[in-house]
Amino acid sequence: MNKVVTTSVSLPVEVAGYWRKHKTEIMHHAARFLRLCMRKQVCRGTARKYNRDKGRYAIVTTRFTAEEHDVLTCVATSLRVSVSSLVYGLIMLWLKPARRACNRFYMVYYSCSTGKWDPEAGSLEEWMSFWRVKSPDDPPPWQEVARNFFSE
Q1: What is the reported pLDDT for 120?
Q2: Residues with Cβ < 8 Å from 75, sequence gap 6 or more?
Q3: Structural domain that includes position 40
Q4: What CA–CA distance (Å, rounded) separates 105 from 152?
Q5: What pLDDT is stored for residue 130 in this prediction?
Q6: How far apart, in whole angstroms, are the C-alpha atoms of residue 80 and residue 93?
Q7: How many domains does the chain have?
Q8: What is the pLDDT, as a whole number, of residue 150?
């Protein structure tokens, strides 16, 4: 059984309902969306950016698998944006009919190894790879290997 991370995201009220009703379908597009985000440069020495659209926001409690949460957090941290802003961007991508109708899906594999983590020093290495698959119902053979790796 996959570990589940319960957290909250802050979304404009106008799109919060889409996330509540269609989260699973929207997350099918996450790897492709994150690939688009990763075209931007890694940011350092700057404050984190949050959703700044005018209007009312809703705090939406949501559940991610540990893998989904780790990947979203990795990209958000690297780009110095909030996970909420990534989720908002993902919803906006999903709302485009042409994007939603697209049958090209990507899978992501995330790994994190700790080199040294103690009061003297900290060294982490995060790694993500993306694979293109024909449909989410037709996982490639490597996905079973990844699933076994995470379940140990």
Answers
A1: 92
A2: 34, 37, 38, 86
A3: 4-151
A4: 26
A5: 83
A6: 20
A7: 1
A8: 52
- pLDDT at site 151: 53
Contact 114, 123 (CB under 8 A): yes
- Averaged pLDDT, groups of 10, the chain, 152 residues long: 86 93 89 86 67 81 91 91 92 83 74 89 87 65 52 51
Dihedrals phi, psi of 68, to nearest 5 degrees? -60, -45
Answer whether 87's CB lies under 8 Å from 15's CB.
Answer: no
Q: Beta strand 57-65 with 4-12: parallel, antiparallel or unpaired?
A: antiparallel
Q: What is the DSSP string of 107-124?
A: EEEEEEEEEEEETTEEEE
Tokens of 19: 């996330």
